[in-house]
Design a protein that fits this description.
Layout (H helix, E strand, L loop, with lengths): L10 H13 L6 H7 L15 E5 L2 E5 L3 E5 L3 H4 L7 E2 L7 E6 L4 E11 L4 E12 L4 E3 L6 E7 L4 E7 L5 E7 L2 E5 L9 E3 L2 E3 L3 E3 L4 E4 L10 E4 L9 E2 L5 E7 L3 E7 L1 E2 L4 E2 L2 E6 L17 H4 L4 E8 L11 E7 L15 E5 L6 E3 L13
Antiparallel strand pairs: 1-2, 2-3, 3-4, 5-6, 6-7, 7-8, 9-10, 10-11, 11-12, 13-14, 15-16, 16-17, 17-18, 19-20, 20-23, 21-22, 24-25, 25-26, 26-27
């Protein structure tokens, strides 16, 4: 589906607009990007609310309730861009989340009950499953597992479950079974990077941890960095880009996925950003505008819940990158956002732009899904 914009302007209004936008930098600037560099959306794209995106055993996996996979290979090697995904067969049901211990893939089967009066679905049961590459198998005594957490840097999986005190905690997940509780974790623990648990989004560069702060359950506005995973106000920036949901490192930029937040007089943040990583591993204080259409495709109406750089040691412009673009709020409250716009997005260096990413048939197109 090709999207275009038609503008009728007078010479005076065009001059006024030029003065206005040169007076202050808008790092999203979607209108002017599309005027100068219109990018037609691909017809094929995995559509839906993405609950998991990871690399496992030579493949990439994405979960929208259905689980898809493709070979984990740079497009510069394969020479291919979109239409490389395929469905994994014989799923036990609607699935939620993804994690890997390096051997097994984990996800949760969720059973819903529909309320015909309200039109809403209520979760009535969950069952943890493991996948060995050929079949899904239920894991016994795991009905109290509510989600899974993946540490891609240590290739470790965790199960979030309720303990005997009816409080949430992370438990190790390895060899197809739930193990012991992880000390110091609770219901606020949302990520694990290189073996360290954080109460906010986090990433590991190989020498530096980057993590969102925990000052508020509503707006995670600051990003910290340290070599040991500790928080210090001396190593912190507050870029005012909304609630931070996901972080991913590349050699030169920290990629940040956010959700917009209300400021009382409007909204702040939402969408995808990049922040320059300095030579010593510290961060620039404000985001840098993308040199492609990333923020036009994934702007303030979207919540970017996951970002995956296929080679996180490469420069941001030189590696394949995938992102999960979900809706921010409801469709009615997110202007210009529709169901067909949410789902998997991908950047390929040879193409130079972000776009939808999907299968080679119509099963994952906006119409087919």
């Amino acid at each position: 589906m090709k999207r275009s914009f038609i503008f009728t302007v007078t010479t005076l209004s065009l001059i006024a607009a030029t003065v206005l936008f040169s007076a202050c930098e808008d790092i999203h600037a979607p209108i002017f990007y599309y005027i100068n560099n219109e990018v037609a959306l691909e017809d094929y794209g995995i559509v839906g609310d993405i609950s998991g995106l990871l690399e496992h055993d030579g493949n990439l996996y994405v979960n929208t309730g259905r689980i898809y996979k493709k070979a984990s290979q740079q497009s510069s090697v394969s020479g291919k861009y979109n239409q490389q995904w395929s469905k994994t067969g014989s799923l036990p049901g609607a699935m939620f989340g993804l994690a890997s211990d390096g051997t097994n893939l984990y996800s949760i089967k969720v059973t819903y009950e529909q309320n015909t009066n309200t039109g809403t679905n209520t979760n009535v049961s969950r069952q943890l499953y493991k996948y060995n590459g050929s079949a899904w198998t239920a894991i016994e005594d795991s009905s109290d597992v509510v989600s899974v957490v993946y540490d891609k840097y240590a290739h470790a999986a965790y199960a979030r479950k309720k303990n005997s005190d009816d409080e949430y905690q992370l438990f190790t997940l390895s060899g197809g079974s739930v193990g012991s509780a992880v000390s110091g974790t609770d219901e606020d623990t949302v990520s694990v990077s290189n073996g360290k648990a954080f109460k906010g989004a986090s990433a590991w560069s190989g020498s530096m941890y980057y993590m969102a702060n925990t000052s508020s359950s509503i707006t995670q506005t600051s990003i910290y960095w340290s070599t040991d995973g500790s928080y210090s106000s001396e190593n912190m920036i507050t870029p005012n880009i909304g609630k931070i949901l996901s972080l991913e490192v590349t050699e030169d930029y920290l990629l940040v996925g956010t959700e917009r937040v209300s400021t009382g007089s409007g909204y702040r943040g939402g969408g995808i950003y990049r922040i320059k990583i300095k030579a010593d591993g510290s961060l620039e204080s404000t985001p840098t505008a993308f040199s492609n259409n990333a923020q036009s495709l994934m702007g303030t109406n979207y919540s970017i819940t996951a970002i995956l750089a296929l080679d996180d040691t490469a420069r941001e412009s030189e590696t394949d990158i995938y992102a999960a673009a979900n809706i921010s709020g409801s469709f009615g409250s997110s202007s210009h956002a529709t169901f067909e716009d949410i789902g998997l997005k991908a950047y390929y260096p040879g193409r130079g732009t972000w776009n939808r990413d999907g299968t080679a048939n119509g099963s994952t197109t906006p119409k087919g899904n």
